[in-house]
Amino acid sequence: MVCLGNICRSPMAEGILRHKAEKEDLDIEVDSAGMGPWHVGENPDYRANFTARKYGVDISTLIARQFHESDFDRFDKIYVMDRNNFADVVSQARTDEDIKKVDLILNLTKPGSNKPVTDPYYGGDEGFDKVFALLDKACDVLVNSLK
Fold this sequence. Notes:
The chain has a single domain, classed as 3-Layer(aba) Sandwich (Rossmann fold). Helix content is 43%, strand content 7%. The chain has six helices and four strands, in the order βαβααβααβα. The strands form two sheets. Strands 1-2 form a two-stranded parallel ribbon. Strands 3-4 form a two-stranded parallel ribbon. The chain is globular and about 40 Å long. The chain starts with a strand and ends with a helix.
């Protein structure tokens, strides 16, 4: 899961997917990263943390990190939150196989729509609820495809 700073959208996506995978006893590795270095080493934004906890998902111990080219080797699939994240991740791809691993996360719920998960960082608390709902639905689709 990749977003800009790895403190709002991508840690919520990571937490939601981990939570759902554990409930289904799926053996998968889930992680998140940001494209920029601004928040490396920090926990998720307090609003993301509060929102996730409100829906029964604990992301309080996650630590922000920056996306690296080696993530293409480590993961089968890389879900990004918006078109800028997509372009940034693809710019680090080494092969066509790397590029094929990258997709916008909302394409899980609306294939081919390329709709973004809007960054709630500069908005109010309700933006975090909207983001959580979008990511929750996308992660449902992903978990069901892995069963």
